[in-house]
Amino acid sequence: YTLAMVLNEFMLQRNARISAAIIATDIDRDALDKAKEGKYSCKSVEKLPGEYLDKYFAQEGEFYKVKDSLKKQVIFEYLDLLGDPYPKNCDLIICRNVIIYFTEEAKKEVYLKLSQALNPGGILFVGSTEQIIMPQRYNLAPVRTFFYEKV
């Protein structure tokens, strides 16, 4: 939902319209169900800017629920990074704090599949402990720390 909020605010500030599909994936179906519900404790949203909280959430007792207008912008799907086909034609992939759990061989497979899912010029953002060794073998070029561009 964070990405959807940021994209909405970006478009508002620039009076622009961008056609985007945000696909959130996980291998844990319970985590997907919880994310789809969009229900957060007060503590979970305490650092969110007040204008985001008012605009994108509705308070329900001790919780905040993501408003339907934001929910409909995010598609939640089951995805096994090793076994399933990836979405194609992506401009941005955020894959953080997952790849560290894979073997070196599995990492190579996942990085290749992530690269193949990106459009040329697309960006792959990985976690702080997931620096890609020899990114050029995946047609990726480092842009900044943890950011790689598909070339």
Search tags:
151 residues, Rossmann fold, 2 domains, four-stranded mixed sheet, three-stranded antiparallel sheet, 5 helices, 31% helix, globular
Shape: globular
CATH topology of the largest domain: Rossmann fold
Strand element count:
9
User: Mind telling me the CATH superfamily name of the largest domain?
Assistant: Vaccinia Virus protein VP39
Broad structural category = alpha/beta
Low-confidence segments, given as residue ranges, are none
CATH class of the largest domain: Alpha Beta
Order of strands, widest sheet: 6-7-9-8
SSE order: HEHEHEEHEEHEEE
Beta content: 25-35%
Number of domains: 2
Q: Helical content, roughly?
A: 25-40%
Largest sheet: 4 strands, mixed
Compact summary:
The protein has 151 residues and is of the alpha/beta class. It has helices spanning 2-14, 29-37, 50-56, 68-71, 104-117; strands spanning 22-26, 39-41, 57-60, 63-66, 74-78, 90-95, 118-126, 140-144, 147-150. The protein has two domains: 1-79, Rossmann fold, CATH 3.40.50; 82-151, Rossmann fold (3-Layer(aba) Sandwich), CATH 3.40.50.150.
